[in-house]
Structures are given as C-alpha cells and as structure tokens.
Amino acid sequence: MAFAPSGVARIIEQSSRMVSHQKKLATTFRDVMDLICQSSYWASKNGNKFVQDDDVKRAVDEQVYRSNQLEEYLQEMIDEGTILIDTEGETVGQVNGIAVLPLGDYSFGKPSRITARTSVGRSGVINIERETELGGRIHNKGAMILTGYLSGRYAQEIPLTFSASITFEQSYEEIEGDSAACAELYALLSSLSGYPIRQDLAVTGSVNQIGQVQAIGGVNEKIEGFFDVCKLKGLTGKQGVVIPQSNVKNLMLREEVVKAVKDGKFHVYPVSTIDEGIGLLTGIESGEQNAHGEYQEHTLNYVVQTRLKDFAEKVRSFSADSHEANLQLERS
Questions:
Q1: For helices 274-282 and 181-193, what crossing angle results, to 10°?
Q2: How far is CA 71 from CA 109, 178, 180, 241, in A?
Q3: How many structural domains does the chain have?
Q4: What predicted TM-score, i.e. pTM, was given to this entire model?
Q5: Residues 137 and 215 in one domain
Q6: Which CATH number goes with the domain that contains 28?
Q7: What are 22-32's pLDDT values in tens digits?
Q8: Active site residues
C-alpha cells in the first residue's frame, strides 16, 4: 500500500528513533520493512487508501504492547509503593537514577533510587554493589572516579578523610555501565553538604575526574521511563530529567513526551558539569574556587569542603587521643 506524506514522515522519524540520533537513520532494513508492513496492515484495517501517520503510530504502539509486560509490572509495583520512587519533595543523600532494561528488540527505562551516607572515618567511598560483587567492571570504574573528583576538588590542602557508602536501593541483579556516576556523585555531595535533592528530577550521565558530565546510552528510554512513572503518580509541571549536554543530539522522544515538554508539564535539563547539575538539583549555588583553593561562603562547595575539613580534624584528634591513651596505659 502507498504511503501518504505524513506516513513517510513518521517512518523516517521512527527510523531516527531506532538509532537514537536526530541526524541519522537506521540501516537495519529488516526492522524498517517490518514496520512498513505492519503500518500497511493497520491502514488496510482502518479502511485508509494511503498509510497515514496514525497507522504507523498504531504499528509502533502494537510492537511495544507485545513486549512491555515486564515494564507494566514494574510500574505497577512503583504505583503500589512496593518499589520506592519519589516524584515530589526533597531528601538529603537521595537521588533518582535511571537504568535501561533490554528485552530483545525492546528496551525501557527503569527509575532506581540511589542513596549515599557519609560519616567520619578513613574508608573513603564504599560502593556497595562492588563489595557485594553486583557491580560490573564499568560500573565499578565509574564509582571509583568519584574519589578522584573529590580529591581534586576538595583535598588539595587537607587529606581526604571520610567514610561513605553508595548503593542502588532495591536492586538484586548485576549493575553495569557508568551512566549512574553523576547520580551517585550528586547523592554524595548532598549527604556531605546536608542540602536536600529534588525528588521530582531524575539523573543520568557519566562523569570524569574533572567534573565534566559525559554522554551515555539509552537517553530516550531513560527519559521516557521516568516520565511514565511521573505520569502514573501525577504530573506536577516541575518533574523532569537531567541529562548530559552531549546527549541532546540523541533525543528522539515519543510524541507524548515531546508534547508534555512543550506544554511545560515535563522538563529535560541538559548540563555540562557537576556544578550545573548539583545547582539544579539543590537550588544552591555551587560556587567557584579562588586562587587559594577556597570557595565563597554559603555555596555548596564551600559547605562540602568545610565538612571534609571537619572530618579530617576529628580523625586527627581521635587518633591523637587514642595514641595518648595507649602511652598512658604503657606507662602504668
């Protein structure tokens, strides 16, 4: 069956969506031909002389319906409160990350709660997934980069002396990839500073030791996954996803999400640095470092640096007291 211009346009759009790029088309012609055949079927079923954009959309929706039973089940568990995900409010040391679950020819985004706790100590950053052997090599690398970022940013004049634990809550399978590194770092900075993170935003992005936010894969699935959860719980007009600036070219979101963004009911925030992201998530200015390595008072980086100095001093004082106590025991 022949295609109307609107149907051709929708096929081209879906082809770009298949490769997650605004300027590229899929060359997996088998998949494209399969979509064309299914679109022709629905056009015939609807009595159309030409294949319209609605026929292509129906074909795509039917493809999703045949594969998304697990996705619907997880959304139901989130809606019931079995899987804990907040889409409103603020919490210290807690951020919404997003994973992508592949199911053959279908993938979808699953929001996951990431938490961090910090305290006085010498253990550094403990990634619970790594310690329990639930973290893949790339995920472990991303988590270890966090220590490099913290050392370079806050520990040029003092030792980096603290203990912290990071984990994906309610995760029972191996986690791979470094796309949660930004979320983990934001949770750490929130715990250290005491400033709460917005729970109406979800985060994805890799990070390097300098603090630059790097591109990740599956950006469309991740945005749509959090959008679906927000829609399920009720859109407030403030919810959204924080993504790497370098992933903007990969945005090929489904029509419903694009409309929600245009109407101001949902938001997509591209960021290039950790400072941009943490400022957006907390509403607190991150602060720039001066020539002496210090930050302006009342900024988030100033509070974090001050907290780490306090931790280092407490460890030094405790070690000195313990040493003195041991000497007194030896003398007695």
A1: 60
A2: 8, 22, 20, 19
A3: 2
A4: 0.90
A5: yes
A6: 1.10.8.60
A7: 999 888 888 89
A8: 179, 222
